[in-house]
Specification:
single chain; alpha+beta; Creatine Amidinohydrolase; Creatine Amidinohydrolase, Chain A, domain 1; six-stranded mixed β-sheet; 11 helices; 18 strands; about 35% helix
């Protein structure tokens, strides 16, 4: 039996996690103020007059206002001079004001009125009748269509150079929250491995992981959880039906949580019982591919080159070629922060240059349809000295959490 796999109970592990429950302070107001300043610098550099950020992660990132998307237009116009104008349904004004962190005019529209006409009138009042205005990439398409119908000469463009330009480079405060979330999830992974036993269902493990995230200090529990046994591990996002664990099954668990809106996301793969030679060969190929991607991540390198490095290495071992299976059928990694998948991505077409503060998953999964799959997923962030792991990669197939070396 692999070290750290099996031998405990759900009750014992929830008790262990409760004993090490983690807390951390929320993001300070000064962080959001500095983001507005950063957005202004980028807007002036790229000749934007303003951006519109829709309810969701971009609205929270720039203004500290937690408000989720709906069919009703809710968001904020941020100008290149740093002013903030909110657009809010009138009946939500009092509630919105309780969530609003940064100061700004709250402009309201009644149910029978057009928020899109209000949007254009705000731009006019700001002197932007013909300005260049970026639209948040998460804005519903029909909202943009309605805005375009009532526009009076403004030039509307993709706001991503500003939104992603700011968000892709995390501050120390953001990295601290992500580090806390990653540390929590790694401990939950250790507990999930310990509760495994013959006959346990994937759904039982999933439920336990949610409880475990709550016990260790993430009030919302798991933001997502994928538990796969045996052949089901070959499919990156699982299969429709639950599986029952048997001796010798390969186990893949991918899960995460939130700490003050920042995500964790870690995958571990190991064997319940004794690993076979085929398991071992593929597992260590995956581990080497992950290490190859990490080594390729250097300041000034294209994001796409990290993906190319991992894929080229795997092809040298006979996998693929390209996205063919047996092999790596998807990109090597994704950005992470307020959204679990965000810009930029570690995919060969991505020309964004790696810079300090960028955070990524590193998961060049190996899929062998009809047999099994191996995904080892950890995240790293870029420093001026190169990449740094949030969590140490899996130690070995026989000791996935490195417990034997403690």
């Amino acid at each position: 039996m692999s070290i750290g796999v099996g031998g405990s109970t759900m009750e014992a592990e929830i008790g262990r996690l409760s004993a090490i429950s983690v807390t951390t302070d929320p993001m300070p107001r000064s962080e959001f103020e500095s983001r507005i300043d950063k957005a202004c610098m980028l807007m002036n550099s790229l000749e934007f007059d303003a951006i519109y950020v829709s309810g969701g992660s971009n609205l929270y990132y720039f203004t500290g206002t937690r408000w989720y998307p709906s069919e009703r237009m809710t968001g904020a116009i941020v100008t290149a001079t740093g002013s903030v104008d909110y657009i809010v349904p009138a009946f939500e004004k009092e509630t919105f004001s309780q969530y609003k962190l940064l100061d700004g005019n709250v402009n309201c529209w009644q149910e029978h009125e057009s928020p899109f006409e209000l949007f254009i009138s705000i731009l006019k009042s700001l002197g932007l009748s013909r300005g260049k205005v970026g639209i948040d990439e998460a804005t519903p398409f029909h909202h943009f269509g309605e805005i375009s119908q009532v526009a009076t000469g403004q030039q509307f463009v993709d706001a991503r150079p500003i939104t992603a330009g700011c968000r892709s480079r995390k501050s120390n405060a953001e990295i601290h929250l992500m580090q806390t979330a990653m540390d929590m999830t790694l401990e939950v992974h250790k507990s999930a491995a310990r509760i495994l036993k013959p006959g346990i269902l994937t759904t039982e493990v999933d439920s336990f992981i949610d409880q475990a995230h709550r016990a260790i200090g993430s009030p919302g529990g798991s933001t997502f959880c994928a538990v796969q046994f045996g052949e089901a591990t070959a499919y990156p996002h699982g299969v429709p039906d639950p599986q029952v664990l048997a001796d010798g099954d390969i186990v893949l668990i991918d899960t995460g949580c939130l700490v003050h809106s920042y995500h964790s996301d870690i995958t571990r793969t190991y064997v319940f019982g004794e690993a076979g030679n085929r398991h071992r060969d593929v597992w260590y190929d995956e581990k080497a591919a992950q290490a190859t991607a990490f080594a390729a991540a250097r300041i000034g390198v294209r994001c796409g080159d990290v993906d190319i490095a991992a894929r080229t290495y795997l092809e040298s071992l006979g996998y693929g070629p390209d996205y063919a299976v047996p092999g790596l059928p998807h990109r090597t990694g994704h950005g992470i922060g307020l959204d679990i998948h965000e810009w930029p991505y570690l995919v060969r077409s991505e020309d964004t240059i790696l810079d300090v503060g960028m955070c990524f998953s590193n998961e060049p999964m190996l899929c062998l349809y009809g047999e099994f799959g191996v995904r080892l997923e950890d995240h790293f962030y870029m420093t001026d000295q190169g990449p740094k792991w949030f969590t140490d990669p899996s130690h070995s197939i026989d000791d996935p959490f490195g417990l034997g070396s403690d």
